[in-house]
């Protein structure tokens, strides 16, 4: 088989581009696998003087679309504002759905998901 140098050069470039594409795809898949579905940005924490033993935490919580969180509960009152999307959670056997709001809503019972 007689291959001219120009054709051989393009074959090498093609193999290199395909190999780089595979490497980039693998790196992207690995990075996406390790990404946490919930991210918290804590803005402040304090213990209110009029509520001994209680904590007051101000934080932004970002939940990826379609994320499934393990069942858990929150003690006390939770205040939230939905900035984008829809949040669906369970309280006991009831399902609650909240969408974008301009008002803060409070959950005063343990919230399970």
Please provide a written account of the structure.
With 113 residues, the chain is α+β, with helices and mostly antiparallel strands. It has two domains: 1-35; 38-107. The protein has one helix and six strands, in the order H-E-E-E-E-E-E. The strands form three sheets. The protein has a two-stranded antiparallel ribbon. A two-stranded antiparallel ribbon has the order 3-6. The protein has a two-stranded antiparallel sheet with strand order 4-5. Strand 4 and strand 5 (94-99) form a beta hairpin. The longest helix has 30 residues, at 5-34. Mean pLDDT is 76; it is low at 108-113.
Write the layout of secondary structure elements.
Blueprint: H1 5-34, E1 38-46, E2 56-63, E3 78-80, E4 86-91, E5 94-99, E6 105-107
Antiparallel strand pairs: 1-2, 3-6, 4-5
List keywords for this structure.
113 residues; alpha+beta; two-stranded antiparallel sheet; 1 helix; disordered C terminus
Short structural summary:
The chain is α+β, with helices and mostly antiparallel strands and 113 residues long.
**Terminus-to-terminus distance:** 66 Å
Category by helix and strand content: alpha+beta
Mean pLDDT rating = 76
Radius of gyration: 25 Å
Taken as a percent bin, the fraction of beta residues is: 25-35%
**How much helix is in the residues?**
25-40%
What is the 3D form?
A: elongated
How many DSSP-defined strands?
Answer: 6
- Strand neighbour order, sheet with most strands: 1-2
**Oligomeric state, counting identical vs distinct chains:** single chain
Unreliable spans: 108-113
The number of helical segments is 1
Largest sheet: 2 strands, antiparallel
How do the helices and strands follow one another from N- to C-terminus?
HEEEEEE
Q: Any idea how many domains?
A: 2
